[in-house]
Amino acid sequence: MKTARIYQRPKNAMQSGRALTGQWIIEFEPAEPQRADPLTGWAGSGDTQAQLRLRFPTLEAAKAYAEREGVAYHVVPAPDRKLKLQAYADNFR
């Protein structure tokens, strides 16, 4: 049986805005381990679902897709946002 994790993408440290952070993502867990290619040395596997990442507008839509397709899933809660409130004058203390 396929397993997946559903999570909400956190804001990147290099982002100032919150674009695309409200989306929920389904990522399938790898079904087989990666192995080194003897010719190139790159890591890879025959599991193509590990490359798949589906985006949904809500958590309910992502859960409904997983249940409809028969995919076992677990939801990873979004990390808490920590605001660092700072004034310009704090630079000169």
Brief overview, please?
By secondary structure, this protein is α+β, with helices and mostly antiparallel strands. The protein has one helix at 59-69; strands at residues 3-8, 24-28, 35-36, 43-44, 53-56, 72-76.
Structure description:
This protein has 93 residues and is of the alpha+beta class. It has a single domain (3-35, 48-92), classed as Double Stranded RNA Binding Domain. It has 1 helix and 6 strands; from the N terminus they run E-E-E-E-E-H-E. It has one helix at 59-69, and strands at residues 3-8, 24-28, 35-36, 43-44, 53-56, 72-76. The longest helix is centred in the C-terminal third of the chain and has 11 residues, at 59-69. The chain starts with a strand and ends in a 17-residue tail after the last strand. 8% of the residues are buried. The mean pLDDT is 87. Its main location: membrane. InterPro entries: NADH_UbQ_FeS_4_mit-like, NDUFS4-like_sf. This is ETC complex I subunit.
